Amino acid sequence: MNEVYRSWASEGAHVHYVSNSPWQVYPALSEFITNKQFPQGSVHLRAVSTQELIRGKPGKHKLEMIPKILQDFPHRKFILVGDSGEIDPEVYQQIYNQYPDQIIKIFIHDVTSQRARDADKLAQERPDSYYRSLRKFLSRESSLQRRGSTSQLAMDAMAETEVPEEQQQISNPEIPLLTKLEQFEERMKRVSSGMREGVFTVFTLASQLMLDPVVAEEFLMSKTSTDLSI
């Protein structure tokens, strides 16, 4: 990623490092930026108490800090870079909705889908898999066309394993059961819904950022500076 940021900086981009990390880690972060040859830029960390470190609201710092940066530079365009591990997609969606004209691109590093595939594979291989149990129930229920034995079939199927919390809302067998990978894909679709075409990109390789046509066109055509917020 350092090569991507250096390339953008060489094109005139200004870099703002926005992190949910507390300000106490600044010395280590500054050393990391220098040693890994990331371009220099402003650093925005959280000023927090011990209690806030434990009970702080996820994403609050970025939701407060990034809009302030956009307001400080109203004539600049911004690229937002985050990852799917926490709530960066949802945070950036809110910021985009507030400042659609200033946000030219949102990049989300996919750190979720491979873990989701692994979890789904493991779940399918387990004899007491919730997914296997519920899919089995839905199949049997459908074949019986909701006859009187449906309730008993449901009880038998659900008794095989505990229902995961994220699936507890599924009480209607007409609602398809989503795997973890499908949940992630639906989440990305939901977040990007309503955005301009080409604004939202989920990536796995840094080279995808270098080759992105929206960013390339902005650097070529725009006479205003393009800021990179991380």
From TrEMBL:
It comes from the Eukaryota. InterPro entries: APP1_cat, Mg2+_PAP. Residues 1-109 form the Phosphatidate phosphatase APP1 catalytic domain. GO terms for molecular function: phosphatidate phosphatase activity. PANTHER family: PHOSPHATIDATE PHOSPHATASE APP1. This is Phosphatidate phosphatase APP1 catalytic domain-containing protein. The lineage of its organism: Eukaryota, Fungi, Fungi incertae sedis, Mucoromycota, Mucoromycotina.
